[in-house]
Amino acid sequence: MACARPLTTVYSEKGEASGKNVVLPAVFKAPIRPDIVNFVHTNLRKNNRQPYAVSADAGHQTSAESWGTGRAVARIPRVRGGGTHRSGQGAFGNMCRGGRMFAPTKTWRRWHRRVNVGQKRYAICSALAASALPALVMSKGHRIEEISELPLVIEDKVEGYKKTKEAVLILKKLKAWNDIKKVYASQRMRAGKGKMRNRRRIQRRGPCVIFNEDNGITKAFRNIPGITLLNVNKLNVLRLAPGGHVGRFCIWTESAFRKLDPLYGTWRKPSTLKLGYNLPIHKMANTDLSRIMKSQEIQKALRAPNKKVHRRVLKKNPLKNLRVMIKLNPYAKTARRRAILLQAKNHQAKLGKKPNPIKQKAKADKKKRRQARYQHKKETEAKEAAAKEAAAKKTAA
């Protein structure tokens, strides 16, 4: 990890470096797996749910029976009796007024989830490793611009604080009070039904104070809004990664910080407090892929890039495209030329051919007959018109 340092400074209650240094625990170099943290957080949160269900008798507390078929109404059960609007109304069904819901909820639903111990420990290791990266902590929304160092470690004297004013003073000395001011500024009324369920006010998360022994530190810090207090022996991923997102701002006491190596072990030796537990190992020692790929060792082993471009050829129909047909059949050009020449020759022969006298005579006779029919028709129409006119004059006289 690029941000990992061999030593961490211990700060005094005055907010200054005390001169003591602590070796950075190996858990802060563990792989950060947001997917595992989110999965574990989602499943562990389900263990706080309370069962709920509708009444088993809801929607069935009436006497109703179907009228059967033949009444031109639906076969849904109907309320018995008379003398009221309720009688004859549909009952029981989820489509009926006053009926039960579809698939009534039961209290024996599987509310809780079991999570593997190894997964829970992996999630905690990832959350702790992310809490040491300023970029992730700032992206979570914590105001740590003036913080000297992450992870932030303070002397064990703080574990004996019993007054809130002492806790406020050391937070101001450590320049961590800006994160508390953010919490104060975020206090607002909840939008939604939660206002009716004793969850009226909401606020942002502040720092997480992690201690080894409670000599009064919980009383000193518990009344400051946004602060979460955790014992190093009982670390909880729901507190270290609220919402399933890594990057919580953590303030450690010196003894709690020193206890992380015995708790989670290093890659050289397993944990002494968790039987047979070893820290998760990185899949890659260096995750800078671009730097790895551009290194001389890798470039020597790689072949030159293939820049040949394979373009898809447009398929053409050889029956409609002569050029493609000639590629397939070179004789097609000669055959086509011969067909064109033969067609032209036949056309010229047809034009120069003398007319047949028999056909010519038949054609002339046909034309005469057509003209005679037309002339006869005209004469007949003229005679009929003259007859009608004479009849009309005779009638008028």
UniProtKB/TrEMBL annotation:
Biased composition annotated in UniProt, kind: Basic residues: 360-376
GO biological process: translation
Regions that span the bilayer: none
Keyword field: Ribonucleoprotein, Ribosomal protein
Bias kind Basic and acidic residues: ranges: 377-397
Residue span of region Disordered: 346-397
GO molecular function, one term: structural constituent of ribosome
Domain Large ribosomal subunit protein uL4 C-terminal, residue spans: 276-348
Record-level GO cellular component terms: ribonucleoprotein complex; ribosome
Family, per entry: Belongs to the universal ribosomal protein uL4 family.
Protein name: 60S ribosomal protein L4-like isoform 2
Organism: Callorhinchus milii (Ghost shark)
